[in-house]
Amino acid sequence: MELETKELNWAGNLEYRASELLYPTSIEQLQEQVRAARKVRVLGSRHSFNDIADTSETMISLAKMPQVIDIDAQAMNVRVSGGITYGALADALHAAGFALHNLASLPHISVAGAVSTGTHGSGEAHGNLATAVSAVELVLADGSQLSVNRNDPEFNGYVVSLGALGVITHLTLDIVPSFDVQQTVYEQLSWDKVLDSFDGIQASAYSVSLFTDWSGDLVGQTWLKRRVGDALLDDIDQGKFGGLAAIAPMHPLPGADGAICSEQLGVAGPWSDRLSHFRMDFMPSAGDELQTEYLVPREYAVQAITAMRELSSVITPLLLVAEVRTIAADELWLSGNYGRDGIALHFTWKPQQQEVETILPHVESALAPFAARPHWGKLFAATSTDLQKLYPKFNDFIELAQRLDPAGKFRNEFLNRNLFGA
């Protein structure tokens, strides 16, 4: 359809420039639309804060494509349509007695978009969401279809693909038996004590999140998502790190309503209702915000956190909240955790984009000694020259993209700036 008014991203900080937004309702129609387009990008759940999905020509949304959730209990996988949200998928899997190994903070995001940008959940034993992918189905630039799986020697290049290879129509994901989770929030733990025992804190639960504004001597909130049946870390419960368990539902943002967050206070419930921070039926986080995130090797966790605390005078005035999480290593070429266990330093900013973009080079300079990789779907200052040094398989991915899309139909300014400009 011809756009009469411009479309916005989820946070409202970006106005898409596309001249048309198409909603195919079948694979055949999608193939025809891709084949006919000169330049095309796919618009997912719009939860990106930069121009990764933008184009001045054709955007395609998969929102009206048939929703597919095909569970294979014997193979322990599920084939899903790319446009489906994690919230919808999680509900369907739990109802059938299955689970994903992890979820991101928001259940509102689309599966294909999250996988393509290396989006992650939390937990030192768990890889990002894309590590569950065992097969990818694409519509290529010429309208043909391609399916690749883990037996393909280049499979690890197809998963976190930034939309540069084609339109992801379906994904097959590994699943596990369903499980229950208890979530408890602790307030005002001591930073010094947490950093002295960082590995112990991270091993204390299935998923651990530290929320802070980087100022002061105390962690604002510590969210522990414990798998029911796993051992508890009594040191936290007994106050070894300072702080106390919250007695009411908490929101990561000071003063915000904890009722919109996943259930806490140690009440056991399904993984599908606990692993994300926010409930599907509410606006997550602040809504009107900006986001940045950097993935740092695990061995530099304490040094990187210390560097951010030392930069508090620059960061904190523009910050709503920051979050620290851990993620396991993987072999996906453009993943932020390719080849290394890591921590994620996430920044939720006030909606002051010019000011935020002014300080990002300072943040990245402070994290440069730790080989920090920016999240592809969020705001960052690094260029393709910087990024090429951070990803050992960077050039291999460029060669794959050029082979599948030699005319650059799926390229846009974001990809030219951050990938193909190297």
Automatic annotation (TrEMBL):
Classify the source by domain of life: Bacteria
State the Gene3D superfamilies in the record: 3.30.465.10, 3.30.70.2520, 3.30.70.2530, Uridine Diphospho-n-acetylenolpyruvylglucosamine Reductase, domain 2 (3.30.43.10), Vanillyl-alcohol Oxidase, Chain A, domain 4 (1.10.45.10)
Q: Name one GO cellular component term.
A: membrane
Give the matching InterPro entries.
ALO_C, FAD-bd_PCMH, FAD-bd_PCMH-like_sf, FAD-bd_PCMH_sub1, FAD-bd_PCMH_sub2, FAD_lactone_oxidase-like, Oxid_FAD_bind_N, Vanillyl_alc_oxidase_C-sub2
Residues in domain FAD-binding PCMH-type?
A: 14-178
Kindly state which keywords UniProt assigns to this record, in alphabetical order: Oxidoreductase
Q: Which Pfam families match?
A: ALO, FAD_binding_4
Q: Name one GO molecular function term.
A: D-arabinono-1,4-lactone oxidase activity
According to UniProt, the name of this protein is: FAD-binding protein
Q: Which organism's genome codes for this protein? A: Glutamicibacter mishrai
